[in-house]
Amino acid sequence: MIAETPLTRYRLQRIVDARERDLLQPGQPAEVAQLEAYAEGTASQLLYLQVSTLPRANLPERLYTNPYGSL
């Protein structure tokens, strides 16, 4: 399936960037907002990538539109 649906570089780069920021910051996130930003940059991006590999006919349009860019 992945060979048929190329993954977007944008999503993969967001994961790398979030992990890099996490490695450079000492200790745990000091605020909930920092933890949310990390989750959006990592786990959420993986979910967006998974959704992008599914045929659009099988899912509601709302799953393909989000405030962070198109899938």
Structure report:
The chain has 3 helices and no strands. It is mainly alpha-helical and 71 residues long. It has one domain (9-64). The longest helix is centred in the first third of the chain and has 16 residues, at 9-24. The protein is elongated and about 45 Å long. The model has no long low-confidence stretch (mean pLDDT 81).
SSE layout:
Blueprint: H1 9-24, H2 32-41, H3 43-52
Would you summarize the structure shown here?
This protein is mainly α and 71 residues long.
Structurally, the number of domains stands at 1
Q: What's the story with the biggest beta sheet?
A: none
Structural class: mainly alpha
User: Helix content range of the residues, please?
Assistant: 40-55%
Number of helices: 3
C-alpha-based Rg, rounded: 14 Å
| Mean pLDDT reading | 81
Number of strands: 0
User: pLDDT below 50 for ≥5 consecutive residues: which ranges?
Assistant: none
Q: In whole angstroms, how far apart are the ends?
A: 16 Å
The backbone outline, from C-alpha atoms, is: elongated
Relative strand content: under 5%
> Helix and strand succession?
HHH
